[in-house]
TrEMBL record:
Record key words, sorted: Allosteric enzyme, Glycosyltransferase, GTP-binding, Nucleotide-binding, Transferase
Enzyme Commission number(s) from the entry: 2.4.2.9
Domain Phosphoribosyltransferase, first and last residues per copy: 9-216
Species assigned in the record: Brasilonema sennae CENA114
Identification of the protein by name: Uracil phosphoribosyltransferase
Its job: Catalyzes the conversion of uracil and 5-phospho-alpha-D-ribose 1-diphosphate (PRPP) to UMP and diphosphate.
The UniProt record lists the keyword Repeat: no
Top-rank taxon: Bacteria
Annotated catalysed reactions: UMP + diphosphate = 5-phospho-alpha-D-ribose 1-diphosphate + uracil
GO CC aspect terms: cytoplasm
Family indicated by similarity: Belongs to the UPRTase family.
Biological processes, Gene Ontology terms: UMP salvage; uracil salvage
Length: 216
């Protein structure tokens, strides 16, 4: 069996609604931030399915003993927001994963070459091998930034099969690169858009996510 990148676009009305709000050029920053928070929340909820480690137990109810399934607290969980725009998804992701450790990674693309460079890296030197990692970045355009993030994670011991990417708008060039390099990886996104233009913007997309979140 050859592994392939799996890309899930959950058919959920809340995800569709907040994507439409985020796409609208007339949406002001304050509402755009709410849209990102909600998308972070619901896409993380979807991504947590079959990813959060659980353990079986029994609990004493007021009336009897019942079998129970609990989140396994011994498996480390990490969220890696790709600054700046990935911060927009973080608050919603944290409501679903309140105990996850947050490791910030600051990347910015050169406007001309579209090559990303790192200006902040709070990743630990080594992750424990079983660590579940959720990477947040609303835009997967040329894929340069996410490929950079995945290289930083895997060289620190992260297993791509235990990693989930949460994005909002994913474009074919990014998905192709991730598929070629990390075939076991799973992406959750609100939409897959048609193309990336010569300036590196996703079409139709939602514009510059970082600028719209922070009003710059
Ligand atoms: O797939 P790529 O072609 O690498 O593009 C995607 C990246 O571009 C944007 O970041 P940007 O460099 O604009 O930084 P920002 O988040 O601070 O605005 C976006 O938030 C992604 O990180
Ligand atoms: O369309 C795009 C592409 C990359 N980054 C953005 O913020 N928007
Ligand atoms: Mg930007």
């Amino acid at each position: 069996m050859t592994l392939q990148l799996r890309v899930y676009v959950p058919p959920h009305p809340l995800i569709k609604h907040w994507l439409a709000v985020a796409r609208d050029a007339a949406t002001p920053s304050v509402l755009f931030r709410s849209a990102m928070t909600e998308l972070g929340r619901w896409l993380t909820y979807e991504a947590a399915r079959e990813w959060l480690p659980t353990q079986e137990a029994t609990v004493q109810t007021p009336l009897d003993v019942s079998p129970a399934t609990l989140i396994d607290p011994t498996v480390p969980m990490a969220v890696v927001p790709i600054l700046r725009a990935g911060l927009g998804l973080l608050e919603g992701a944290q409501t679903v994963l309140p105990l996850a450790s947050i490791y910030h990674l600051g990347l910015v693309r050169d406007e001309k070459t579209l090559q990303p460079s790192t200006y902040l890296n709070k990743l630990p030197e080594k992750f424990q091998p079983q660590t579940r990692v959720l990477v947040t970045d609303p835009m997967l355009a040329t894929g340069g930034s996410m490929m950079n993030a995945m290289a930083e994670l895997t060289q620190r011991g992260i297993d791509p099969a235990l990693t989930r990417i949460v994005s909002v708008v994913a474009a074919p060039p990014a998905l192709q690169k991730l598929n070629d390099a990390y075939p076991g990886l799973i992406v959750y996104t609100a939409t897959i858009d048609a193309t990336v233009n010569n300036q590196g913007f996703i079409i139709p997309g939602l514009g510059d996510a970082g600028d719209r979140i922070f009003g710059t």
